[in-house]
């Protein structure tokens, strides 16, 4: 028991040293309560064109099918809330995409942490996951006591809000497990009331196919005229349901230099965005998650906002 406790504390201490905001641990097992929710969400086609969400249903719910011999899911939060923001007269980019693509930043930290675990504890097998594999990140973070799933379906934490990334290490090491926290949304409906496209169809249920982030990032075809005028100048992603959440008044700026935006990004106004060239796009978003939508995708979004 003492060894299990020592290993747990060792991992959490090193996670903090690497810059993670918090770390929680759950037993690697089938997510029973999530299974019917996911099935219902898919059946109602709330994933829209995100067909990858239909793949690996069993693996998505059971980490032991993803990582052989896994015993623990270690969840991490990494703050991305910026200290500076885009100009008021600008088309908007979700704050998570201001700096270097988080996949690279977090993967490197998790790689270092896994190496540390192997050096300090011994032969531990594991895999790192950063929003790019069939893992239900928010469910595991909630199960690990890092927050609760809010009415906007984001993970919320009393002390820091929701402007953070979630990632996991799934390992074949038994550790001490944390317990979930209680829901603190109460009677608040700020996120539901503020969503311009009514994507939050019920408290705690988001129709992904109605979300501005879905339209501006995931949807590859032309944007539907039915949502014309509803994007509130968001050209990549959307932060509305987070910006209005009362818990985000506790957000504090991150201290990860790689998440700082390109200097030109914050200075651009609407006219600059309308005139953006492929060269400028490549320079500003060289290492950014915005590259996912490509230059043509961003131009499509801008045309839609200008109509």
UniProtKB/TrEMBL annotation:
Bound cofactor: record note: Binds 2 [4Fe-4S] clusters per monomer.
Named cofactor requirement(s): [4Fe-4S] cluster; cob(II)alamin
Binding site for cob(II)alamin: 60, 131, 152, 155, 166, 213, 238-239
PROSITE patterns per UniProt: 4FE4S_FER_1, 4FE4S_FER_2
Pathway: tRNA modification; tRNA-queuosine biosynthesis
CC annotations in GO: cytoplasm
Active site: 131
Highest taxon of source: Bacteria
Gene3D superfamilies: 3.30.70.20
Coiled coil spans: none
One Gene Ontology term from the biological process aspect of the record: tRNA queuosine(34) biosynthetic process
A family per Pfam: QueG_DUF1730
Keyword Coiled coil included in the entry's annotation: no
Keywords annotated in UniProt: 4Fe-4S, Cobalamin, Cobalt, Cytoplasm, Iron, Iron-sulfur, Metal-binding, Oxidoreductase, Queuosine biosynthesis, tRNA processing
UniProt binding sites for [4Fe-4S] cluster 2: 195, 211, 238, 241
Domain 4Fe-4S ferredoxin-type: 173-205
E.C. number(s) listed in UniProt: 1.17.99.6
PANTHER family (alphabetical): EPOXYQUEUOSINE REDUCTASE
Job of this protein: Catalyzes the conversion of epoxyqueuosine (oQ) to queuosine (Q), which is a hypermodified base found in the wobble positions of tRNA(Asp), tRNA(Asn), tRNA(His) and tRNA(Tyr).
Known partners and oligomeric status: Monomer.
Family: Belongs to the QueG family.
Protein name, entry field: Epoxyqueuosine reductase
Organism whose genome encodes this protein: Gillisia limnaea (strain DSM 15749 / LMG 21470 / R-8282)
